[in-house]
């Protein structure tokens, strides 16, 4: 089989044994234990199709790899898989300015696609902290959320057409450019969020928006979570909200100190980054002061200052500073977020004194990120932390995965958010599209 793959893809496209790079071991979760048996790097859709047909014939398991920035272990081999990387299948093929769409290959890095859209006078409304490395195919496969969901929806809402290669090598191509298309089942939505378990995304048509004038950005200080909700409601009534990101005190304090930039010397109980498109931020902040909703605010005077606010929110340095950091990503009714955070903090600290527990995220999208690091981490402690956090989600009718997917460990908790009937329907879909079960086995369900 490896000889067949080598003959098909050539030495650059099929790395085996000691040539498989260490980077193929793990995504951004840093939880990967195994190197894949081979790293396949097809450069065309035809090569993806032929490589999958070979694997399918041999019953060879395949794990799909995009930019490897996922935080859920979805792109990691679990043992015995070959990895299929989309990195060489990259590039923007076309920007249709009349239709307002972009056609691109799945391995295109998000930031490259964003720049191409901007150069043509458009906004690509998908944006997340990993923009410099994550790929469009990975964004679609995880239905990535990110920083603009409150304004433009999740990735799936910006996908108009898709080309996908099925497990047996069949190419499904529906590169539709229109917003309206009611011809049969909408397969787009099946593949968006399928995390490489139903097919390999090779090409996409994405919706673009007019490039807005630079948004106004403020960093606000608030006393309690009730004020965060009131500020969100005021903002939604009076401005076009482009982003609304909240940080609990513990997160803001640590991330601010790690970035080395002092934004609020006295760390507030809650900090919110509020971005507004089309003006109106100043009057909103004045009203929020008068009504006692915020007690301090910084308004960015330049793009660089806005970037400083975002650097604290994105918190890239946390991963390196907290050993064994557990990143969870849950969805909750907004009204239950404060008591969720309080209860999870109390339960984790009771079991693991000295742990770091902090919360931040896309409150306007009902989405909370949870950052927990326990002293001397090990897999048992991680399971105990998952149980505390996910039991508290179930008790509040939330979802255990808002955007970061359902890695192998999360798979075991899926029953906290989905009914047995829903899980059975998912298994039936998987069996229909990948009857031999070769694509990303052990993931999602
Ligand atoms: C700093 C940072 C910030 C982040 N912020 C966010 C955020 O705000 N919101 C959010 O949702 N995520 C966020 N993430 C997580 C991650 O960046 C996203 O999930 C991203 O969409 C993954 O893209 P990727 O190309 O790196 O995919 P990978 O990590 O390579 O793969 C992710 C999953 O998709 C599958 N896959 C990849 N490419 C394809 C393809 N072409 N066809 C089929 N399946 C494929 C893989 O098998 C795997 O299951 C963040 C990560 C980091 C490191």
CATH architecture title of the largest domain? 2-Layer Sandwich
CATH topology (level 3) name of the largest domain: Uridine Diphospho-n-acetylenolpyruvylglucosamine Reductase, domain 3
Strand arrangement, major sheet: 15-12-14-13-17-18-16
Average pLDDT works out at: 92
Structural class: alpha+beta
Give a verbal description of the structure.
This protein has 15 helices and 18 strands. The protein has 445 residues and is an alpha+beta fold. The chain folds into four domains: 2-85, Uridine Diphospho-n-acetylenolpyruvylglucosamine Reductase, domain 2 (2-Layer Sandwich); 92-210, Uridine Diphospho-n-acetylenolpyruvylglucosamine Reductase, domain 3; 216-314, 2-Layer Sandwich (Alpha-Beta Plaits); 322-404, Alpha-Beta Plaits. The strands form four sheets. Strands 15-12-14-13-17-18-16 form a seven-stranded antiparallel beta sheet, with helices on both faces. The chain has a five-stranded antiparallel beta sheet with strand order 5-6-10-8-9. Strand 17 and strand 18 form a beta hairpin. Helix 8 (249-259) packs across helix 10 (303-314). It binds flavin-adenine dinucleotide. The site of flavin-adenine dinucleotide has 36 residues, from strand 3, helix 4 and strand 10. Flavin-adenine dinucleotide is lined by residues 27-28, 63-71, 74-75, 86, 106, 128-130, 134-135, 137-139, 141-142, 144-146, 195-196, 200-201, 316, 403-404, 440.
